[in-house]
Design goal:
binds zinc ion; Immunoglobulin-like; EC 3.4.11.2; binds diaminopropanoic acid; aminopeptidase; five-stranded mixed β-sheet; Peptidase_M1_pepN_C; protease; Neutral Protease, domain 2; alpha+beta; 28 helices; single chain; alanyl aminopeptidase activity; nine-stranded mixed β-sheet; globular
């Protein structure tokens, strides 16, 4: 298929002012009657030429097409695989179409589909065309009224966007409900639900004194897992009023949780539909990380109501306009409501594990892509997370106040419109006076810029200079980026030098910055708070990094110093192991880890937990030209084992001291203590000692919350050969206990698929046949298969067995759900970083996918790029 290009954008030939949908759910399918008030788009060049009406549709059985009440003969229109064309239409007219769709047969989970207790929708990006004929593009915004009819006993809850304006009984035990959305919206924000669900209700009083009715709908029996999400929703609403002056504009705000869902959640106007994973929580079934993720995702979807819904995207190339901005907003919310220090660390850890590899591989694309074959492939770490970094840099460049003024200006200019990333930046520029011309490169170019720093100290002149050089080989030219680099200087005693902490604006390919009145050669702390999404090289000595780890008051850069130290050791050890030599672990590193561990009260347990967690294998792999996954794995685990032995007493003491003292709460403070205690448990289990296994078994059996229970299970699931019986017993018990809780079963699958044990592939293969696994449920696929695909050492097995297994799973899945299959295919992205033997196996697997009959556009694009 031919790519779709940003450069080809043209405005719609027809606009649609209002939409009336009548949706009749019947045993033999759902009949959708759509009445559209259409009008030729006067503002376009084509308007004078009487252009044909071309609408999008997919898998629709068309029963009738009428213009202004006149049913058209079949000769008056043309239907092909994806479009309905009516050659001549008046300048203003009413189109009525009647189609039948088959939600029970919709395995793609895009459009209108069945899941367990009812029917749900997912329309972003292009699912609405699977419901009715429509101009399925975000710059066509219409006012919707929707009437649903269904069997009352089976589907007592009938929902759509907006306000309920009518309901009642109909013949044969059926009923109907009518909803009216007062806001114009693009059809990707359409939603409807017909299901049997329980509901938790609450209200929120807005700053201006309006009352919003809140409701969270879940499958029957799960109401006791909703209160956390409800609190998160109210916190988000209050936060957006405080921080951005943005108030909820709706009378009704509903969240519906569904177990079969391709993505995390969806911001449909007034009727969010969520993956159960980001709604349901109770201390015994959800971990601290789950609780925090629920806060973030509930906030994210709520924040979209302004950044995405009130102001939406002109076209899908602008996806980061809403996603980058909304991720930045949910990050800030998370930082304000949890722990700002570790929030930033985790964001960067995530960026390095997912976005940097993406930006270095075959799927590299700009934050605003210039072309795509399948838009669903571009809901990526680049559009979301790098997009959020770009927005964060804007705030860094102009300051928080001007950023807030820029947001105000953005809404003042564009409320109710479908706009571009340029429009957003223009509003920021207008509010601040800052010239973002050079900055726009961040939206335009793929790849991660590499910044190399060098320093010089002139004792006589008391002058210190930092020289930065930037490059991005993935970019289309050598022009420099505008890169904000936050810097501080430290003296040899670890004191921050007063007056020298600044944000440097790197605008040239090579640029030198001077610091005057510096009494002695300082240690620079560069890119504080990760002020730009770049790779930064500086020839730090281990002593300098150790000093920064201990002394830096910016938690991100303190953590970063520790990560740099560990990275250096692991990469050296990887080379040593590959060459048949034993790795060397310097005492200075052990001492630094000891200081952290024994000083956790002062530095914060959450921070120390992050600082004692070594960089992940995928992140480390990016730093190597050719990855030997076995050597890398052995090196990283060798360092863990070394620390476990050398600091055994300290780990044991911290483990004991951090024991819970009261009932569980998912608070930042408690979560930090649990995180550190469980990091300690993991290290303690690195020793082959029965007492350590017993410790994990005791924690597993005695835990009153999922965080601690699961951490013990995970430690056992990764433990060495001698722990096999304990491992198997814990896994069996866990499944036995939780088989009725789908989300907990997902954890059980994931912990096995992510295990470092050598026979993990065989386990995963066996689990694909287990009754707990279901290829048609995205959460199960992500838990078992995607986790395995991210298991660097096992997926990239030298004999190619991981690749061959994966290719077959992707083929089976692609026939049902191309979006999910395509996400699995992304696990091949980095295949060219491995040795020739592995590459040959990966190529064979990719070619077998490429040649697979009926391969979807989704997987096809990923495979073509990977092979390309
Ligand atoms: N727009 C959704 C989100 O990111 C994804 N479908 O919230
Ligand atoms: Zn989003």
């Amino acid at each position: 298929p031919a790519p779709i290009l940003l450069a080809d954008y043209t405005p719609p030939a027809y606009l649609i002012d209002t939409v009336h949908l009548d949706v009749d759910l019947r045993a033999d399918g759902t009949v959708v009657t759509a009445t559209l008030a259409c009008v030729r788009n006067a503002g376009t060049a084509a308007a004078a030429t009487n252009p044909p009406l071309v609408l999008d549709g997919e898998e629709l059985e068309t029963l009738e097409v009428a213009v202004d009440g006149q049913v058209l003969p079949a000769s008056a229109y043309r239907i092909d695989a994806e479009t309905l064309t009516i050659a001549t239409v008046p300048a203003r007219f009413t189109l009525r179409t009647k189609v039948r769709i088959q939600p029970d047969a919709n395995t793609q989970l895009s459009g209108f589909y069945r899941s367990k207790d009812g029917y749900f929708t997912q329309c972003e990006a292009q699912g609405f065309r699977r419901i009715t004929w429509f101009a399925d593009r975000p710059d066509v915004m219409a006012r919707f009224t929707v009437t649903l009819h269904a069997d009352k006993a089976a589907y007592p809850v009938l929902l759509a966007n907006g306000n309920p304006v009518g309901q009642g009984d109909e013949a044969d035990g059926r009923h109907y409900a009518t909803w009216e959305d007062p806001f114009k919206k693009p059809c990707y924000l359409f939603a409807m639900v017909a299901a049997k669900l329980d509901v938790l209700r609450d209200t929120f009083a807005t700053a201006s004194g309006r009352t919003v009715q809140l409701a969270i709908y879940v499958e029957p029996g799960k109401l006791d897992q909703c209160p956390h999400a409800m609190e998160a929703l109210k916190k988000s609403m209050a936060w957006d009023e405080r921080r951005f002056g943005l108030e909820c504009d709706l009378d009704h705000y509903m969240i519906v949780a569904v177990g079969d869902f391709n993505m995390g959640a969806m911001e449909n106007k007034g009727l969010n539909i969520f993956n159960t994973k980001y709604v349901l929580a109770r201390p015994d079934v959800a971990t601290d990380v789950d609780f925090e993720n629920i806060d973030r995702v509930v906030a994210h979807e709520y924040f979209h109501n302004w950044t995405g819904n009130r102001v939406t995207c002109r076209d899908w190339f602008q996806l980061s306009l809403k996603e980058g901005l909304t991720v930045f907003r949910d990050q800030e919310f998370g930082a304000d409501t949890h722990n700002r220090d570790v929030a930033r660390i985790r964001e960067v850890r995530g960026l390095r594990a997912a976005q940097f590899p993406e930006d270095a591989g075959p799927m590299a694309h700009p934050v605003r892509p210039a072309s795509y074959i399948e838009i669903n492939n571009f809901y990526t770490a680049t559009v979301y997370e790098k997009g959020a970094e770009v927005v964060r840099m804007i705030q860094t460049l102009i300051g928080r106040e001007a950023f807030r003024a820029g947001m105000d200006e953005y809404f003042r200019r564009h409320d109710g419109q479908a706009v571009t990333c340029d429009d957003f930046v223009a509003a920021m520029s207008a509010a601040s006076g800052f010239d973002f011309t050079q900055f726009m490169r961040w939206y335009r170019e793929p790849g991660t810029p590499r910044v190399t720093a060098a320093s010089a100290y002139d004792a006589q002149a008391r002058r210190y200079t930092l020289t930065f050089t930037q490059a991005n080989p993935k970019a289309s030219d050598n022009a420099p980026y505008l890169i904000p680099i936050r810097v501080a200087l430290f003296d040899a005693q670890g004191q921050e030098l007063e007056g020298h902490s600044r944000t440097l604006l790197l605008t040239e390919t090579t640029q030198t910055f001077a610091f005057d009145n510096v009494a002695s050669a300082p240690v620079p702390s560069l890119l504080r708070d990760f002020s730009a999404p770049v790779l930064l090289d500086y020839p730090y000595t281990p002593a300098e990094l150790t000093l920064l780890l201990a002394a830096e008051s910016d938690p991100f850069n303190a953590w970063e110093a520790g990560q740099r130290l560990a990275t250096g050791l692991i990469l050296e050890a990887t080379a040593a192991i590959a060459a048949g030599r034993a790795p060397v672990w310097p005492e200075s590193f052990t001492a630094a880890a000891r200081t952290l561990l024994t000083g956790y009260e002062a530095r914060g347990a959450a921070f120390v937990a992050e600082a004692l967690t070594l960089p992940g294998e995928a992140t480390l792999a990016e730093l190597l030209d050719e990855v030997n996954p076995d050597a890398l794995h052995a090196a990283r685990n060798g360092l863990r084992r070394h620390l476990a032995e050398a600091l055994h007493a300290e780990f044991a003491a911290a483990y004991a001291a951090l024991a819970p003292t009261g009932p569980y709460a998912p608070s930042a403070d408690q979560a930090g203590r649990r995180a550190l205690r469980n990091v300690c448990l993991g290290y303690l289990l690195e020793r082959d000692a029965p007492a350590e296994r017993q410790r994990a078994q005791d924690q597993y059996a005695g835990a009153d919350n999922m965080t601690d229970q699961f951490a013990a299970l995970a430690a056992l699931a990764n433990a060495n050969a001698a722990a096999r019986p304990a491992r198997e017993a814990a896994l069996a018990d866990f499944y036995q206990r939780w088989q009725g809780e789908a989300l907990v079963v997902d954890k059980w699958l994931a912990v096995q698929a992510g295990s470092r044990l050598p026979d993990t592939l065989a386990t995963v293969q066996r689990l694909t046949a287990h009754p707990a696994f279901d290829l048609s449920n995205p959460n199960k696929v992500y838990a078992l298969l995607r986790t395995f695909g991210a298991n660097l050492v096992r997926f990239h097995a030298a004999d190619g067995s991981g690749y061959a297994f994966f290719a077959e799973q992707i083929k089976a899945l692609d026939a049902r759900n191309p979006q999910v299959a395509s996400r699995l295919a992304r696990c091949f992205d980095r295949w060219k970083k491995f040795d020739a033997g592995r590459q040959a196996h990966a190529r064979a697997a990719l070619e077998s996918l490429r040649d697979h009959p009926g391969l979807s556009r989704d997987v096809g694009e990923i495979v073509m790029r990977a092979l390309g």
